[in-house]
Amino acid sequence: MEQPPDRKNRPWRFSTFIYSSSILLLLLSILTLSFTKTNLYKTKSLFSNPKSKPPNPPSPPSRCLLWMAPFLSSGGYSSEAWSYILSLHHNLKNPNFRIAIEHHGDLQSIPFWNGLAKETKELAIEMHETECTPNETIVVCHSEPGAWYPPLYETLPCPPYGYNGEFVAVIGRTMFETDRVNQEHVERCNEMDYVWVPSEFHVASFVRSGVGLDKVVKVVQPVDVEVFDRLRYDESLDLGEVGDLVLGSGGEGLGFVFLSVFKWEKRKGWDVLLKAYLREFSGGDNVALFLLTNAYHSDGDFGNKIVDFVKELNLEEGGEGYPCVYVIDKHIAQVDLPRLYRAADAFVLPTRGEGWGRPIVEAMAMSLPVIATNWSGPTEYLTEENGYPLVVEEMSEVKEGPFEGHRWAEPSVDKLRVLMRRVVSNPDEAKVKGKRGREDMVKKFAPEVVAKVVAEQIERIFEEKTRT
């Protein structure tokens, strides 16, 4: 098994801002990947024709962008950070800056590293070896503000030296799922030169909370519209193979399939979804709800959690029984996610709050009709034309956790019932919305579109800071 890097015994060479490679420890375990096919090949090529000399490569730009994020973990910040790095790498031609990466902000995951594509691993090693000097470097701290310098828990500090003017600029990339930002996090945001957030909703909530208006910049998140393209795949994932039946009697055919993807926590609105679905449909409706979920500060016994929740609802089963509910709690590899979406007829997430809503935009890129709460991150891309925005019934107070005392949305159960029935009953309308959703993803959030936005921001900062 390939091992993720161990940074505890990591030697640092701060004077030249060259990080001794933690990811290079991974290189030892994939020697045939990186040496046999790269360095050895180059060596043989040079010795095979001693009279020929390789042309002198053009000097790389001295300016550098150091992106620090949870690159070796599997959370939302990790997937977002990789989406930016891959967008920049694949779409910038002759950029005026080099890109270096460093793991920061979360624990490392062996399964996540092993699940990365070979090309992504090679790129990770290459970018981690990139050397930068502080006075020509912009640092992006891509994590929740508690991980920023000085970190509130054990993680690599970002920026590495603190806010002492060593770097050209320091950018914080973050987001919140509630109506405000904690005061301590406001103070941390104001230490940054800039704070990048994904939506107009976040611009407003950060400024309202006290983050400087001159610091907050909207930078949307990319979605890989080539990977998440229904036409690219001939087959769908076999839902019967990966899903476990929790409610309903099942049968030979699944009928109309609703899909929801989320981690198991109150914020994601799984309770709202189950209430609406079980009250609106019965076993005679030929529908199925698949929940791809994973534990979040809880155990993973999702089937019994659902059964207990239904008992608490005092919802009578009726003569035709419950509509089918399936749980997918197995790991679905990133490369299989498009085929998962392809197996569904509609995507639904009655969330109480999202930073962005990555599964929502992935579903939209796959041309699925989408039902999602009309609040927080999704307001940046979800409209009546490209989906089914779910009405917020009221705002409620967060009762526990790090956002206790904040407020988030309570989506309407009754309106969700109406929308789910509407999608089932009007497939032509749903198809039109799904088609428009993909068009909007391609036009506004494709990697090449967002890469241009990020590059323009970075180049503008370099120009402004070097003039002063």
TrEMBL record:
<keyword id="KW-0472">Membrane</keyword>
<keyword id="KW-0812">Transmembrane</keyword>
<dbReference type="Pfam" id="PF13692">
    <property type="entry name" value="Glyco_trans_1_4"/>
</dbReference>
<protein>
    <recommendedName>
        <fullName>Glycosyl transferase family 1 domain-containing protein</fullName>
    </recommendedName>
</protein>
<keyword id="KW-1133">Transmembrane helix</keyword>
<feature type="transmembrane region" description="Helical">
    <location>
        <begin position="12"/>
        <end position="35"/>
    </location>
</feature>
